[in-house]
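quick one before i forget lol
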Amino acid sequence: MMDNMIVYLDEAAHALAILPALLPAAQVRPPVRWIVVGCAPRVTHHVSKWVTHSARQNWRGKWADKVFSQVIPLLQAPGDEVVTQIASGPLCDLTDALMSQYGAGRVLDARRPKLGNALQPVTRQPAAQGPSVWACAAMMAGSGMLLAVD
């Protein structure tokens, strides 16, 4: 029986920085099927007017090959299987489809957060509510204000 791990990523450097802490220890785990989903950057509306659909798909494929080639060696261990896919459409729907195809598993979101832009959710379960980026920024600004008044 293989465990399934669905990993969403959009940037190899960020994924390589956070994935080692999230990976289970290789000695004490059953084989894992890694389902690596690349979330390619969006093409701007201005650019999309001048580029054909097939050229966009070709670019997304090259982008994914580059990112996957950097991340997959970290995930591979003896007995593991790696499946790659490029995301298209809502990620919650893709997660549901992958879980129905491969069975239930864990979902790891290794995408780089973008300041001011909320990332599209990858599951339908509500995320654990922690302090938002703006709450942290407001706290830092308030602390600076207290220091300036003193």
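fyi The beta strands are 3-9, 32-38, 81-86, 106-109.
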